[in-house]
Design a protein that fits this description.
It is built from eleven helices and two strands; from the N terminus they run ααααβααααβααα. It has 305 residues and is mostly helical. A two-stranded antiparallel ribbon has the order 1-2. Helix 1 crosses helix 9, helix 2 crosses helix 8 and helix 9 runs parallel beside helix 11. The chain starts with a helix and ends with a helix. The mean pLDDT is 86.
């Protein structure tokens, strides 16, 4: 059980960080399907720059810079150029997936994986038994993730910027009437999202692992987007949804370790995705019933004429 909990936390941390990025974008009225591309770009840049400089801190700063630059490009395409936000997001994901694979071959003349000795520090390590396994060898970003979620909640729910962000996403005309530029607010939201995606990619490559592998995100950016929807666009709800999907991933990993030869490996690999689909279906069913209940309550409250 302790090992499953440890793997759950390790698997959930990058999902939660990228889900926070999706929450900021969604609050600004942007369905950010480019999270996957930004996440894998952050993972590659952290490893490449960290290995070149010998400093994981420089690697993370470079990843944040690159992902923020791509976020500006994404904003320019969907804002001033007026491109479809979903198509542009998928294009950004394609750039991230294809660009990192191309860079791996062009810069290092190799395909597959790039290993590194520069990894994130681990505040607690060396515990091999007992409940301490849960926190042992977890990177510093895992420890900081709850604080980042709390900070996101404060910014979105208890700050003037959060109110302006909600206004720009839901009522852009009202925001303009108050002298707030929705486009500038959306740019700021996407810059924050880019930085969070870079942290999620860094946790995946030099936190949970010690290498970059082509397509290593394996759909985690899209799962984080689902966590945003499943969490009702709320930072805490999205974080809990990311934790659930981390549990699903942990169950899949542990099943691969403990599975017998009688069970095909493909069925084991399906477990996280099946649980994700089930969670989305369950969340949609719950919301539909809530809307039906609210509609019925409103009809009962209507006065008779």
């Amino acid at each position: 059980m302790e090992q499953i909990l440890a793997t759950t936390i390790r698997s959930a941390a990058p999902l939660v960080l990228v889900a926070m990025a999706g929450v900021f974008a969604f609050r600004a009225g942007i369905f950010h399907l480019g999270l996957e591309g930004l996440m894998i770009t952050g993972a590659f840049t952290t490893v490449a720059v960290g290995e070149a400089t010998g400093s994981v801190e420089f690697g993370i700063l470079a990843a944040i810079g690159v992902c923020m630059a791509l976020s500006v490009l994404y904003w320019w395409v969907i804002g001033p150029l007026g491109a479809n936000v979903i198509i542009a997001g998928l294009g950004l994901t394609s750039i991230g997936l294809g660009g990192t694979a191309f860079a791996l071959g062009a810069i290092y003349d190799q395909r597959g994986s790039l290993f590194t000795d520069t990894v994130l520090p681990r505040p607690v390590s060396g515990i091999t038994s007992g409940p301490g396994i849960i926190i042992s060898d977890q990177s510093i970003l895992v420890w900081l993730t709850p604080l980042i979620v709390l900070a996101a909640w404060v910014v979105l729910r208890r700050s003037r910027f959060g109110l302006r962000l909600a206004a720009a996403g839901e009522y852009p005309f009202a925001a303009r009437s108050l002298g707030v530029s929705p486009q500038i607010i959306k740019l700021q939201a996407l810059l924050i999202a880019g930085a969070l995606c870079a942290l999620g990619g860094a946790e995946l490559s030099v936190g949970a692992l010690r290498n970059f592998t082509e397509n290593m995100t394996n759909g985690r950016g899209f799962i984080a987007f689902v966590a945003v929807i499943f969490g009702a666009w709320h930072p805490i709800g999205s974080a809990l949804a990311g934790l659930f999907f981390g549990l699903a991933d942990a169950i899949g990993i542990q099943s691969q370790i403990n599975v017998t030869e009688r069970v095909p490996r493909e069925f084991v690999l399906m477990i996280p995705f099946v649980l994700t689909i089930f969670a989305v279906w369950l969340g949609g069913l719950w919301r539909r019933r809530s809307l039906e209940a609210e509609a019925g309550y409103a009809e009962l409250r209507e006065p008779d004429h």
